[in-house]
């Protein structure tokens, strides 16, 4: 099957892109590697930031300033201004599609406080905002005629010179390689916090697949060292305790019953404060006991149920233990207002580095970024695909992908790839997590080199071609190791502490490093990294903020 536009990824960014790219006269497909209802967007609980009154210049400027402040010098001002100015319109559009945002008594969309925000600007649907928006967008995409290609694992994109021509994927039902020709492609397949398996709110299959695909296509990655750790996950399951809990008045207490941090500080500050308490031998809890049961069941229904189901805790009467966990990745595919260095290839959502988060994402901005830049990517892909012919598929890439799959099925293995994925997650959390230093990062790099050698010897134990989970898990592990190495190399090169990147051996922010780190794979398995500065950044920043 051929399509005018193919979107890879079924979260809010991908769905918005697909809806925007679809017309009555073209064909648009949305590819997901699993269930369409499973995405990080669905897990995003707390809300979506927006200034609802487009004429409230002062509030829009405050949203811009809060976002810039959180980004710690690595922001793209043009992208931030675009996002903040379009926030209210996007929320209005989502509401028109059927998203039932919580309302105040006067009938207006309700807004709550969120970490790092100077105003109440976070719109929400209880504490299940992401899943509510995603469900509505799936229904909308189907209604406008977007075709869903589920259970397709994308291996590569093909191109003619510097223009896209199609997508190569594994059809999971029979493990066959399928080629989908396209005039334009949008990558919206999520981030890479899943490489911290066992210490992440993400599902284990969020291994940075889209970033690995982009690297293989010759596109650069940007600022990979910036991984955001959410302050509050459940210790045993890493289940996300939404920031909405603190936004609605929850306290953070240590085991001595002391409040030790501003609960609505930016996530990097709160995560490090909690980690310090834990390293000092204390436990940390979220305390909602001072709120009424009616209020908790109304504003935080998902947390109320999950705490009881997973930890046996009634948050109305008991403290709920929490710990920081890998949650969101600010690094991603280099982009300029959703465009990439390849013609016809667009990116949006968490897999993209749009420049709006910089070194540390502001709570509530991820769903907004996904919706705003998903819409933009869809518009640009639609425009690009008009009056264009389909380009030839590079069948050398297809043949190589077939060979990779045949090799994984063909041999025997004595190694446990699940154990490798678990130890990768543990290693990344311990040596490239909330605290980093030169010695730990060198250890991480050496271990990753060892794993990358071992992963080539992995084969499926189960040789059945029908829905073979081992095949996809091995390919995900290959992508995870590639992306993990980019994270470790970026963290090693950035000899300072900035936002979510904290170096114990370089504890201060270095103004001379107000620069992004770019990653390019010049040969399979070999990366080139360099700093690059936007010379107009400081001038634009002063103009916007003043």
How would you describe this structure to a colleague?
- There is one protein chain.
- The protein has 546 residues and is an alpha/beta fold.
- The chain has 3 domains: 3-226 and 327-385, 3-Layer(bba) Sandwich (FAD/NAD(P)-binding domain), CATH 3.50.50.60; 232-325, Succinate dehydrogenase/fumarate reductase flavoprotein, catalytic domain (Flavocytochrome C3, Chain A, domain 1), CATH 3.90.700; 400-513, Up-down Bundle (Methane Monooxygenase Hydroxylase, Chain G, domain 1), CATH 1.20.58.100.
- It is 39% helix and 18% strand.
- It is built from 16 helices and 20 strands.
- The chain has helices at 12-21, 40-43, 57-71, 77-97, 129-144, 209-216, 244-247, 267-279, 293-299, 301-311, 365-385, 395-410, 417-431, 438-455, 469-493, 537-545, and strands at residues 3-8, 28-31, 48-49, 111-112, 122-123, 147-149, 152-160, 163-171, 176-187, 221-222, 227-233, 251-254, 284-287, 320-321, 323-329, 332-334, 345-347, 352-353, 516-523, 526-532.
- The strands form 5 sheets. Strands 1, 2, 6, 7, 8, 9 and 17 form a 7-stranded mixed beta sheet that branches. A 5-stranded mixed beta sheet has the order 18-16-10-19-20, with helices on one face. A 3-stranded antiparallel beta sheet has the order 3-5-4.
- α13 packs parallel to α15 (469-493).
- It is globular.
- It starts with a strand and ends with a helix.
- Mean pLDDT is 93; it is low at 535-546.
Strand content: 15-25%
**Distinct helical segment count:** 16
* Span of the ends, CA to CA: 52 Å
What is the share of helical residues?
Answer: 25-40%
Mean pLDDT reading = 93
């Amino acid at each position: 099957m051929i399509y005018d536009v193919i979107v890879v990824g079924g979260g809010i960014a991908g769905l918005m892109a697909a809806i925007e790219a679809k017309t009555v006269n073209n064909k648009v497909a949305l590819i997901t590697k699993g269930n369409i209802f499973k995405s990080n967007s669905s897990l995003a609980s707390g809300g979506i930031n927006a200034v609802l009154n487009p004429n409230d210049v002062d509030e829009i400027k405050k949203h811009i300033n809060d976002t810039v402040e959180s980004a710690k010098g690595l922001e793209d001002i043009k992208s931030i201004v675009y996002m903040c100015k379009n926030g209210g319109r996007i929320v209005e559009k989502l509401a028109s599609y059927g998203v039932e945002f919580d309302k105040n008594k006067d009938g207006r969309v309700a807004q709550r406080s969120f970490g790092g925000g100077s105003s109440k600007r976070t719109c929400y649907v209880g504490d299940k905002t992401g899943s509510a928006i995603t469900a509505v967008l799936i229904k909308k995409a189907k209604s406008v005629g977007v075709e869903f290609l589920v259970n397709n694992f994308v291996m590569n994109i093909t191109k003619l010179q510097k223009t896209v021509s199609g997508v190569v994927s594994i059809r999971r039902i029979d493990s066959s390689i399928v080629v989908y020709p396209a005039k334009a492609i949008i990558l919206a397949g999520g981030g890479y916090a899943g490489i911290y398996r066992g210490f992440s709110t993400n599902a284990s299959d969020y291994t940075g697949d889209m970033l690995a695909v982009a690297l293989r296509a010759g596109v650069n990655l940007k600022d990979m060292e910036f991984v955001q750790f959410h302050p509050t996950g459940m210790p045993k399951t890493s289940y996300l305790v939404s920031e909405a809990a603190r936004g609605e008045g929850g306290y953070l207490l240590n085991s001595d019953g002391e409040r030790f941090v501003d609960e609505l500080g930016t996530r990097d500050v709160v995560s490090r404060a909690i980690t310090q308490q834990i390293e000092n031998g204390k436990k940390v809890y979220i305390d909602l006991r001072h709120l009424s049961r009616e209020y908790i069941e109304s504003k935080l229904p998902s947390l109320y149920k999950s705490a009881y189901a997973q930890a046996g805790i009634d948050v109305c009467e008991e403290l709920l233990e929490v710990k920081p966990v890998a949650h969101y990745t600010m690094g991603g595919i280099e982009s300029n207002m959703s465009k990439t260095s390849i013609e016809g290839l667009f990116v949006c959502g968490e897999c993209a580095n749009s420049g709006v988060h910089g070194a540390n994402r502001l709570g509530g901005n991820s769903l907004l970024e996904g919706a705003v830049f998903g819409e933009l990517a869809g518009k640009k892909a639609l425009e690009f695909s008009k009056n264009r012919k389909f380009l030839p598929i590079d069948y050398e890439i297809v043949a190589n992908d077939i060979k990779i799959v045949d090799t994984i099925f063909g041999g025997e293995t004595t190694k446990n790839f699940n154990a490798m994925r678990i130890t990768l997650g543990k290693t990344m959390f311990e040596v490239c997590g909330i605290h980093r230093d030169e010695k730990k990062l060198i250890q991480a790099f050496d271990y990753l080199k060892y794993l990358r050698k071992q992963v080539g010897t992995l084969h499926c134990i189960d040789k059945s071609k029908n829905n073979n989970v081992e095949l996809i898990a091995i390919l995900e592990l290959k992508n995870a190791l590639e992306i993990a190495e980019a994270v470790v190399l970026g963290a090693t090169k950035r000899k300072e502490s900035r936002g979510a990147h904290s170096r114990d051996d370089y504890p201060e922010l270095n103004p001379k490093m107000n620069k992004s780190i770019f990653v390019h794979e010049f040969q399979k398995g070999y990366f080139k990294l360099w700093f690059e500065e936007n010379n107009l950044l400081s001038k634009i920043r002063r103009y916007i903020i003043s």
